[in-house]
Every structure is written in C-alpha cells, then in structure tokens.
Amino acid sequence: MKTHGIAVMALLLTAVALTACSPASPTLKSDEDRLRAELNLKPAKWPLKFKEHTFIPLCYSTLACKVSYAGPPWIDDKPSPPSSTYGPKYLDHIMGGHVGISNFPDPAEVTWRSMDGVEHKALIDIGAIFRDRVVRHNVPREEVAELVHGKLSGNPLILLEVNDRTIRVYMRAFIPTKHLSDPDNPLSDRRDELVLARTYQY
C-alpha cells in the first residue's frame, strides 16, 4: 500500500508539473499592445481609398468668382487679391470646408472673371479626376502607420483653386506615419501636404 501511495503521489506531481509547463493563453506584452488590440489597429489597406471627402474652393486674382458643388454656391463678388499676397506657401494652412460629401456629386460649376475682365465658365468633374477613389499622398507604403481597421479615420480634403486664368485641383489627406519627421516634435508623426491632381488653363 505504501508503494502504491508513493506512485499516486508521483503521478499527481507529474500532472501538476505538466500543467505548469503547458503554453499559457496569449498575453499582451505592453500597454501599447493592449491599446493596439482595443483600437483594432492593422496595417494600412493598400492603396488608401476614400468614400467621402471635404471640399473647399478658393479664388485669387479674380474680379468675381462663384463655385457651385455639393450644396449652396460659394460666391466672392469682390476682386480677390493675388495669391502672392500670402507668400509662396499660401495654400499650406488651408483647412475646413464642406465636410462629409459622398463620392461623387455632379461636377463643380465655376464662373469667374479673370483680371483682364474676361468672363469664364468651367465644369470641373471632381468624380472623374478621382474616379479610382485613391487617396493622393506622398507617404511610402512601408512608412504608413497602422490604422483603425486598416483605414484612414478622416476624409481627405479636395481643394479647388481659381487663380486668374488657371484652375488647380488638389488633395490633402492626413497620413499617420511610423516615424517622426522632426525628432524634436512629437506631433510630427503624420504628413498632410497638398498634392496637385489636375491643372486647367483658360
């Protein structure tokens, strides 16, 4: 009986040891990992695409200007100063606009008078310019940070500029990056430069 008891004890100790050594359920290594899991952060789906956009028109060097797109028209019925008034980076800090526009309304209708007094009218088909729904940006794929569900959280801005006899269409999107562009600036973990998509001359 004594030998039997010793054998049973040995079996129990072996079972406990095996349980202790068996692989445990996966655990997250850090708060960063837990946050990543909670937010469902995943590698960016490529190419980055958009289903809605924000729109803003701007007029420079015009005697009068009107832009109609996805809502009430934007009207500037007074002479607008040249873009040079605002310096070489006059579009760098332009934000805001008409938000939440589904892709895509009818073309933008633009009527204006250039500085020589000539009247112009143009239809700018935003949907045709961005028919592929791909976000225009300059961040390499390997530098784009993980995103919620792998998608951008904000809509890109489409900017339509009327400048005397020229119309330009740009896109600006906020792209989170894996690294800081300025090591001394903790807010430089994204890029949002304007990307020129189309130019028209009149």
The separation of the N and C termini measures 106 Å
How can the largest sheet be summarized? 5 strands, mixed
Strand content: 25-35%
Total E-strand runs? 13
- Global morphology: elongated
Blueprint of the fold:
Elements lengths: L1 H20 L9 H9 L1 E2 L9 E9 L1 E7 L5 E3 L21 E5 L5 E7 L4 E6 L1 H4 L17 E2 L8 E7 L2 E7 L2 E2 L13 E2 L3 E7 L1
Parallel strand pairs: 2-9
Antiparallel strand pairs: 1-8, 2-5, 3-4, 3-6, 6-7, 9-10, 10-13, 11-12
Keywords: Signal
Structure description:
With 202 residues, the protein is an alpha+beta fold. Helices cover 16% and strands 33% of the residues. Keywords: Signal.
How would you summarize what this structure contains?
Keywords: Signal. This protein is of the alpha+beta class and 202 residues long.
Task: Give me some keywords for this one.
202 residues, alpha+beta, five-stranded mixed β-sheet, four-stranded antiparallel β-sheet, 3 helices, 13 strands
